[in-house]
Amino acid sequence: MSPELSRPRRASVGLDDRYSVAMDLGRIGIWMPKRFGTSTVAEMEALGYGTLWLGGSPSVEEAVPFLEASTGMTIATGILNVWQHEPADVAAARAVVAARFPGRFLLGVGIGHPERTGDYTRPLATMRAFCEGLASAPQPVPAGDMVLAALGPRMLDLARARASGTHTYFVTPEHTRFARERLGRGALVAPEVAVVVEPDPGAARAVARTFAASYLRLTNYVKNLLDFGFTDDDVAGDGSDRLIDAVIPHGSPAQIAAALEEHFAAGADHVCVQPLGHGEPPVGDYRALADALLPDAR
Questions:
Q1: CB contact at 8 A, 58 and 298
Q2: Considering the entire predicted model, what is its pTM?
Q3: pLDDT, mean of residues 164-180
């Protein structure tokens, strides 16, 4: 494993401070559904994970218990769904949280999926208007305090223009390289990477396919995979071995560390891992991965 994986540093160092994330994310974080609750937050922080990304379309207010359960860890929404909120309300709530927990809350905002939103029209225009609403609110959200979920080139351009960068999901290192090239130096690229800590390839792929099945029925993820060299056969059903192995690394903690290094080599500043298949929350996986990814953090 490269020692760079465990070296603490600011998540993004930019040529223009407007595009630099305003808080320290560390190099390795955890992506966790909000339903898992706060019971493991203090241990995650003690293990050395720099940021906890909350999934499940959390609101700003839902991040507060996780901030209360930690002392220095950054908490991020991964992501707040724009269809469910008004930008002025989000900006006001963020201002309260930022004042109470200075330098520890990152607002991640995203457009969601057409299959899961009843009125999904003009996603880019909707996201642009939401960002404008956050910036023009009575208590505006600074660009350095937010990231956008982005896959395609135009949404990545918006992330560069209106936020500190992007938080991507269900992507390969090739997409991380594309995001870095599109955003340029100075913007944050922070992919989520689901992993299976399991040495048996067949067992690991079974877990990964259970996870991947729902995402392979969402048009934005499928289109992105096809754009990056996968075929219709790869995305059919629950995914080919080639696709599953590329998107959801598996194996020993050391093997997973090597797979994450591919994202860093492609331009990621921060990677948040989502361990699968060993409980909710998968405490044993958090510990085993920390031993491989963060040996000097404790």
A1: no
A2: 0.92
A3: 98
